[in-house]
From TrEMBL:
Keyword Transmembrane carried by entry: no
Name of the protein: Sigma-70 family RNA polymerase sigma factor
Record keywords, A-Z: DNA-binding, Sigma factor, Transcription, Transcription regulation
Stored InterPro entries: RNA_pol_sigma-70_dom (IPR014284), RNA_pol_sigma70 (IPR000943), RNA_pol_sigma70_r2 (IPR007627), RNA_pol_sigma70_r3 (IPR007624), RNA_pol_sigma70_r4 (IPR007630), RNA_pol_sigma_r2 (IPR013325), RNA_pol_sigma_r3/r4-like (IPR013324), WH-like_DNA-bd_sf (IPR036388)
NCBIfam families attached to this UniProt entry: sigma70-ECF (TIGR02937)
Domain of life per record: Bacteria
RNA polymerase sigma-70 region domain span: 11-80, 93-156, 177-223
Organism name: Nocardioides zeicaulis
Length: 233
């Protein structure tokens, strides 16, 4: 056992830089590089303890997938800012392995359709899984998009006052429909044409004081119809 322990330590020390290099391939994805290196070294340690030289494989061909798998599991469990469904996470891990294996066979980066065929899944599933890569670290609002003339933040929607107006119109329409023709005209003059009470009085043949009382009654009637005590603007 002491001899095996020394051999394990020798393997770890000899391949320390390999583990660090693998970890750094995953930096800038939302997890601290120091944490990634620790996870990669844990994978190296596991590989060194599990390695069987009698199996006919060299250590690197056994250790690299183990280290990479450990790092990817860490991302899967700890690195999501927005967590997609489990099936998508698992498929993305399989895609990552395929992206490491297929270039040696194809001599180039694999297409989504080739990855799908290799994994026996649909191309749509592969595209969906690849699209969640940004869930590790979402783009900042200041990130340029397209030709660089706009940022993510500039392309995002913002509250639109028109939506409130549409909602109010839909809610008020049944209540306004119950008003008399004169009352509807007063509402139109006051809230659509924004006339003063004196101007409304001149238009409908009432005094300013009468217009004020009529408006108060109309608003009270509308509140009753809507079943709310909140003021109607």
């Amino acid at each position: 056992m002491p001899q095996r322990d020394r051999l394990v330590e020798d393997l770890i020390e000899a391949h320390f830089d390999v583990a660090v290099s693998i970890a750094r391939r995953y930096r800038n994805r939302g997890i601290d590089t120091d944490d990634l290196e620790q996870v990669a070294l844990l994978g190296l340690t596991k590989a060194a303890h599990r390695f069987d030289p009698g199996a006919g494989h060299d250590f690197l061909s056994f250790a690299v997938p183990t280290i990479r798998g450990e790092v990817r599991r860490h991302f899967r469990d700890c690195g999501w800012t927005v967590r997609p469904p489990r099936r998508v996470q698992e498929l993305q891990a399989r895609i990552g392995r395929a992206q490491d294996e297929l270039p040696a066979r194809l001599g180039r980066a694999p297409r989504a359709s080739e990855i799908a065929e290799h994994l026996d899944v649909t191309t749509d599933d592969v595209v969906e899984a690849l699209s969640v890569d940004g869930c590790f670290t979402p783009a900042a609002f200041e990130t340029p998009v397209g030709d660089g003339t706009a940022t993510v933040g500039e392309l995002l929607g913002s509250p639109d006052a028109a939506f409130g107006a549409v909602e109010a119109s839909v809610m008020l329409e049944p209540a306004v429909r119950r008003l008399s023709a004169r009352d509807r005209r007063i509402v139109y003059l006051r809230f659509y044409e924004e006339r003063s009470q004196r101007e409304i009085g001149d238009a409908v043949g009432l005094t300013q004081a009468q217009v004020s009382r009529v408006l108060a009654r109309i608003l009270a009637d509308i509140r009753d119809v809507l079943g709310s005590e909140a003021p109607v603007a």
